[in-house]
Amino acid sequence: MAERVALSKPISLDLLNEVYEEYIAGFTKIESKEKLDEIIGQKISSKDNIRKTRTIVQNLWYVDADWFHEEASSVARYLTRIERLPVHWALLMNCYPLFTDMCVVLGQLFELKDSVSATQIKAEIYSKWGARNTLDASLSKTLKSLRDMETITYGSGHTSYAKVMHKISDPKVVALLFASVMLATEQQYMTWENFITHPAIFPFAINDVTQADMAAIPYLSMERMGEQIVFRIKE
Q: Domain map of the chain by residue range?
């Protein structure tokens, strides 16, 4: 699924919701392009930047459909715009590897302190991807996207960040996130405990959803592995 690597332009929750609503309304990719260009063009004048921004969000839905996209589309239909945030998150993780790595890094840093600096974030990402000018630009765009999605906010000054928490209590949404973490991190199986504490889902607090709820999800398989209960994605 990872046709792209990073976000070359910032995106917002409103734009993520817009492209999804066009998709489920039956817009063709060309029809969606025209509407998105008009909406994005209200804030951006450069045609090249409009194209890049639109391509990022269209990559999430206007692709060859698979079970994951079908499940995401079905789950998101009955959610409000703000409730769709974890669905968009799941798709972003599986489409853009750098987004996933950024979330993991932020989650790990937030486990240590309430506020983390851009310098700390970049150092962790550079250790994996190497220091490059294009990467530096992508990191800035991803951080802005996370702010626009209201999952992080500025800490003291504009050089540090604090996380913004969102509660999830819908088992189907939780299951989609669970599957996305396994897919994006290439884990064949994962325990419930490892999932709910995974740094990649740092802005989400899972409430009133249990391991038993996941056992009822059709595309997840619950198995015993030694002393542990693990989940896999059914083939």
A: 1-166, 167-233
